[in-house]
Structure prediction request, 354 residues.
Amino acid sequence: MLAQRSQLPAGLTELQSCVQHNCHISDARFASDYTICVYLLKMREYYRWEKGYGFDTVLARDEIGDWLTSRETFWETLEESEFIPLLIGSEQFDPFDSDAINRELEKHSLVYSAGVGNQGRPHFFLARLEKSSDHEDCHIHVAAEEYARDLTAPPAMSLNGKVFIRRESLRRMLWEKFEEWRWSKPENAMGRAIRCYDFDGDMAAALEAMTDTEIDTLILHEIGEIRAGKELSESWHEMIASFPRSRLELMARAVRDHLADAWSTLPALLERRDPPSLHFYFANLSGMRKLIYPALLDAYDQWVVHEDISPLEEQVEHGLEHWRKVAQELLQLHESRIKTAWQDMESLIEHRQL
Prediction:
């Protein structure tokens, strides 16, 4: 079954082509960074999106194989290419000037974003704008169906006080996690989250309900990211940029993620007493985040076993000051410019686990 996409407004198909071209360039540079299993899973779902197939469609292995070979051959021609400007009407825009581009797209109910994610990987997308809202000093865009995207397609990003939430990418990510879990159905945080919804009775409705719930969680995290960004200042971004695609980058990003969540995400989820989102939150923690914060996982286990949420509340309160201090100490090490700073920064995080 094909998933229907609405048509772009007249005159914007060239913009779509330009954005997708830049997505291809990013993929040409970075797609090979994934392990083979993760890469093949992402490529399968990218194929599903590109062809417009629904989640209930069984994909033909031979067709995917041919498409994969063709796409990799195409990417080889783009590895040294530079990103191209975006054309809207007769005006050209720098592809990273999201603010100016969105001012032009607002009248068409479209939204665009360009940014740099983990390991220095650029991300671009063009989508239909579902809704916009303001929260304190954050402007939040929720995007619906996507007209251009790259392989990774992160479901949430923040840039210059603006938050971009991608409904279609989030729903696809949730589908991938559901598919992965149902192979063996382990009794873990993901299973507990999934069982909060009726996936057995009505999978489509359950997936949509889970997407609606987790959009709110993503917004909370990005609000925390913005707060953390203001406190850590531009120096943090300069520090991250100085050691791209390294273990230290992953460790530093995990520190900031824990700070953001202690500031915004977890306090809100705990106040709401929201089991589906809490279970999914812990199911979705990266390996590095688990490595440097085992005490948070212990508090989660106590809640699951004893139905006692107080250890989680205490841990979140303690974690806010802890990760704030660790982040500031990382910045101090970076700014000291000592030759052994990288090693000392890794050691700092390792020895300041909670």
